[in-house]
Design a protein that fits this description.
The complex is a heterodimer of chains A (213) and B (724). Chain A has four helices and eleven strands; from the N terminus they run βαββαβαββββαβββ. Chain A has 213 residues and is α/β, with parallel strands linked by helices. Chain A has one domain: Class I glutamine amidotransferase (GATase) domain (Rossmann fold, 3-Layer(aba) Sandwich). Chain A has a nine-stranded mixed β-sheet, with helices on both faces. A two-stranded antiparallel sheet of chain A has the order 5-8. The radius of gyration of chain A is 15 Å and the shape is globular. Chain B starts with a helix and ends in a 6-residue tail after the last helix. The longest helix of chain B has 20 residues. In chain B, β15 and β16 form a beta hairpin. In chain B, the strands form five sheets. In chain B, strands 22, 23, 24, 25, 26, 27, 28 and 29 form an eight-stranded mixed β-sheet that branches. A seven-stranded mixed β-sheet of chain B has the order 8-10-7-11-9-12-13. Chain B is globular, with a radius of gyration of 26 Å. With 724 residues, chain B is of the alpha+beta class. The chains are: A alpha/beta (213), B alpha+beta (724). At the A-B interface, α1 and β6 of A face α8 and α10 of B.
Amino acid sequence: MRKVGVLRFPGTNCDRDIWHAVEQVGDTPQWLWYQDRFNPKDFDSFIVPGGFSYGDYLRSGALAAHAPVMQSLKEASELGYPIFGVCNGFQILCEAQLLPGVLMRNSHLRFLDTMVDLTVINAHKRFGQKLEKGQKVHMPIAHADGCYYVSDDDLKRIQDNQQIYCTYVRNPNGSVADIAGVMNKNKNVVGMMPHPERAMYEWMGSCDGQKFF
Amino acid sequence: MQANLSEKLKTYRISQPEYEKICDLLGREPKGLEWALFSALWSEHCSYKSSKIHLKKLFGKSKRVLQSFGENAGIVDLGDGEKIAFKMESHNHPSFIEPYQGAATGVGGILRDIFTMGARPIALANYLCFGEPKAQRMSTLVDGVVRGIGGYGNCVGVPTVTGQTHFDPSYNENILVNAMAVGYFGKKDPICLSKAKGVGNHVVYVGAKTGRDGIHGASMASESFDDNSAAKRPTVQIGDPFYEKLLIEACLEVMKKDLVVAIQDMGAAGLTSSTFEMAEKGGVGIEMDLSQVPLRDSTLTPEDIMLSESQERMLLICEPKNFAALKQEFDRWGLDACVVGRVTDDKKVRLLWHGEVICETEPEMIVSSAPEYERTYEEHQLKWPIKKAIPQKGEGVLGDAKMLNTILTSHHGGDRSWIYNQYDQRVGAATANDCSHAVGVVRLQESHRGLGVVLGCRPHVMRMDPYFGGIDSVVHPSLQLATYGFEPLAVTDCLNFGNPEKKETMTQFVAALQGMNTFCQRLETPIISGNVSFYNETKNKNVSPTPSTGLVGLRPSVENLPHDSFYKENQDVVLLTFGSSWFSGFLGEITQATSDGYLEKDLSGIETFVKKLTLASQEGLFASGRVVGKFGLLYALARMSLEGMGAQIVCDQAPFTEVFYQILLSTNDVSRLSKALLSENVSLTAIGKTQKASLQWNEHKWATEELKNLYKKGWEASFAQLAR
């Protein structure tokens, strides 16, 4: 049984959902409070859940990126531990520069909750290891700041290095190159805007999310 | 002196007879802070002075009801150790003045009513009435309200799972924004009440600091609008959902640890209502030093502090020995918690300012002696007592199937996803049916059963007849719950009406309430919480009577819910008809073509029908189902065909007449279905078969793709500047 550290910031609101998803696939979640440091060696991997950390004040993810717990997460990243950020978790990982690029306000300037289809571009060794290249998956998005941006040079770099995790079949928010999720250079850190933890059973409208945990 | 008094009465919105009553109670003139206390607690908003006499008659008890009126929200026992708290509330006046903050704080306020009781909020719903799209400010109002609801609900992390939006000219200058919240208690979660007790216990202020916002908000909401409504903007509160999220977590934590004796949120009339109501309910006194209240603005006077409606604040009672542990939990979440007073045994509320007594009153005198008015009304007479058959085929607008295209592309009949896609409908990872469905559904955490949430009240039915409209506000949503297999359990309501000092308004109010109450009793769905919003009137024009309702229902699981669209090919399409009441409906009204019908107020057999329908649905006797509503049969068929599976229908009924009640079902086994459903007043007719890609209605035919395109266009046609 793998122990998964789940980060909690003030304003995180998908923490309990991630907790259940981790339990559902047979792993053991453990809370990591934003003011506390931790020892990466006690864990198999880490998840940064979605929500509105610090109420999205300043910029979504910007304040959380500087919380004490992030120092430990950076150490974990340097040691190569798998780290997964979902929605606001993705924004936090970008703000902490653990992932390339930034997430801007959706091009239509509104919050959008809807089901989307995604194409898996590159699988991640821990989060989504059962996914195959080119596979289509179905799950919801729910965000106001999901428009992914990188410069042209950086885009080429992450494409060449196979860092793109998944893309939207129909771009809902103006993201560069339809990008819905990316990995870091070492491919241990991964983030995505869609919510796999909200697609864990048929009654949720899809159970494709199970493959991401 | 006399001029001085009338000026004062105006400032505090107290009438001359009320002033005389106050003088009688006190045995002298009110002085100082007392003016403000009476003004707030005797406002319509806080005292329900025009409605109390009628609300007392409401059916509010059943074996499932653990808590009814008198607390922050009602509580229903679901069995298996699970309970839910729910309530609906209006925020009409603030939303018209400042739509974003008005709607946002409406959501914030109703959530506090729920978690104050110890329940974790698990679902939100909202009932909105707007004016015509072209009315002044209407796009701005729609945009602001939707952003406000989303801005608050999304951030605080509670999914919005259902809602209704109506448009009518009567709301042009007084929109309605009603929000409902549902909270969940698992086996180990305690229920917390607002009764102050334990002499010597601490009175603790928690949450956000007090500011200048919302001062006199309660009395503002108890007045009609005039040309100066913009000047009332400072009386609207400002919300911070981030703070509320922290407050939810901290409060639920200290309740679970049993550190709280009593708790109440500071809603309308802020600290005034929470202090006086907690003391009055507990039969104790409270001594409180207002100089201890955390302030955002150090120049606030004691009166400002007592009346401020700053958001995200709670007042709680805690034993002194538990205060350190309580404070530690609030500190952990970065929130203020400070002792502002103590519980006393003298049944008086004593307010101090830097240690000096500035006001001493008996809460009982202010709260229980608030005026109660028997406003003038007339006994309502039901319209159309002469029986007329449900129109067949017919001529004119209601018989013209081609009108379907017009309906689908209008804001009345078109797609509403522009609204609800701005709400997070799935946070909590328990949503089984989102806002695109007739009934919102969440899965209960421990038992994994399904909780259905649905709103009622159709303003066009209310305009036709307030008594029948009241019935419909309960029966229509009950049938919706039953269609998807949810046993209707209980009701909350939000009674939005015009000026109660007018006989016409009170007549509507009493008739609607009687209709609702009679059928709540018949269906055994007690009314367990709610609020009344009067004075929805601008420049002497009342809104349509709008008693919105919120119903919850229970289903053994969330698996295999019937769809609200057709999805299986070659199934029989069955039209279930209950009773013989009907009217010319919404199309007749908006085209001003006809106004006719027949209404039977008994709806004899409706209880049995609801029960049988619930069971048939749970047993999976039909694959798809939809209660026929606004715009009648053909519109319902079109809505069921939007996912690509249509039907071929042969039917003589006029396509847009509205019947009370009809339900469309698709099934493989008509005989089993009819055996399960046939009962008093129910008839069942097979009217066609499901088929791929097109909807045929007698000689008319539409591709399902075409219907979808028309339906998607409806919003943009009316709100071009908002559509993306």
